[in-house]
Amino acid sequence: NDNFKFTTGALGYYQTFKNIYSNKIIYKQNKYCNIRFNYYLDVFFSIKKIDFRIGSKIENYTTFIDDSTNISQNKLLPTFVISKKINNSNTIKLNYRATAFYPSVWQLTPYVVYYDSLNASQGNLKLKPQTLNKFEINHTYRKKEFLFSTSIYYSKMKNLFTAIKYINENNFNFSKTENIQGKIKVGINFSSSVLLYEKFEMESNLNLFLESFNNINNQHNNFSFICSFSCGYYLPKEFYFGIQSSFLGKILTVQGYTKPQYLIDMIYLQKKVLKDNASISIGYRNPFIQFIDKNVIEINNIYELRTSKIYSEGFLFRFNYFITKGKKVEMEKFNKIMDKDIK
Fold it and tell me: Is the pLDDT of residue 157 over 80?
């Protein structure tokens, strides 16, 4: 009913692939398999027109390497939300959420990869998953075709895994993926969406924040931003055309920073099918741009600018089918999708 809602479910994720590394001397092939299982439970209830949501997600993640080595992790990730609807347009919300991120197979790969005589890298089988604890105060203003939301937040990342670079007296560069103490971020986030003439819609998000790394050697502080923008147009016969773009400011890394980047993330066309119970999307990721990544690394009074082109463009095809049963009720949106690996 309107005062009590209960949601529960399970999600499974499976991925398998091969990685081949070869040069003039060495040829190595590894098989990888990722299996993830989530069980989530949410309880929503109201007391004197104040809404409470208490939830938790139990997560098990296992990576198999060559059918001989496996790494398994278990996490309990709670969620707590208190919200108060002031009137038909304004809502105030206080929430806490814990999230876990797991190393990709590239970061777990144990062998040393030599790029040339002066550069090499290695993964780490002993990596721990990193966890994010986030506290947030939010105000949302909502009208029929307009929404504006402001959030002030504090987040702390523990066991952050990242590549640490070492340079010896012979100028040999060696990078190894390691866990560090973590990262703290304090910021304010603005998001909005508007629908014009029931045809054209726009969504934008601006995240302004101060971040700092806390590791064994030093602590960095940096003020930056992340901005995203998307727009779409409803075409005849239930077609929809959309564009997604983003702009990132200077982002800290443990030993330096990444320079600002601009991306057109995706252009796509969507069509509702099967009496609006399903949709088909066809898109193209990273069009027009051969994305250039510029990283600045500072080690032992050595200033290094590393530039790389990443060719990650490609076609996207997605089919969604929605199954509903019973009385429809308005519910809080919560994370049912698997959190992505951090590459």
Answer: yes
Q: Which amino acid is at 322?
A: F
Please check whether residue 51 is in contact with residue 80, taking contact to mean a CB–CB distance below 8 angstroms: no
Q: Look-up: residue for tokens 């990650």?
A: 312
Contacts 24+ apart (CB under 8 A), 286-292: 286/312, 286/313, 286/314, 287/313, 288/264, 289/262, 289/263, 289/264, 289/313, 291/261, 291/263, 292/261
pLDDT at 226 over 60: yes
Question: Is the separation of the CB atoms in 131 and 106 below 8 Å?
Answer: no
Is 332 strand, coil or helix? coil
Per the prediction, the chain carries an average pLDDT of: 83
User: At 296, which amino acid appears?
Assistant: V
Strands 27-47 and 50-65, bridge-based pairing: antiparallel
Q: Region 83-92: what's the mean pLDDT? A: 92
- Identify the DSSP state of 129: P
Write the burial class of residue 20 (CB in 10 Å: 0-12 exposed, 13-18 middle, 19+ buried): exposed
| Percent residues over pLDDT 70 in the chain | 85
Distances (CA, A) of 303 to 108, 296, 297: 28, 7, 6
Spatial distance between the Cα atoms of 39 and 48, rounded to a whole number of angstroms = 30
Partners of residue 294 on adjacent β-strands = 307
Name residue 8's beta-bridge partners: 41
Whole-number Å distance between alpha carbons of 10 and 60: 11
Determine the Cα–Cα distance for residues 57 and 132; give it in Å rounded to an integer: 14
- Distance separating alpha carbons of residues 264 and 60, to the nearest angstrom: 34
Q: What is the pTM of this model?
A: 0.75
Count the neighbouring beta carbons within 10 Å of the beta carbon of residue 69.
Answer: 12
Longest dimension (CA), the chain: 72
Is the pLDDT at 338 greater than 70? The verdict is no
The Cα–Cα gap between 285 and 264 comes to 8
- 14/36 Cα distance (integer angstroms): 7
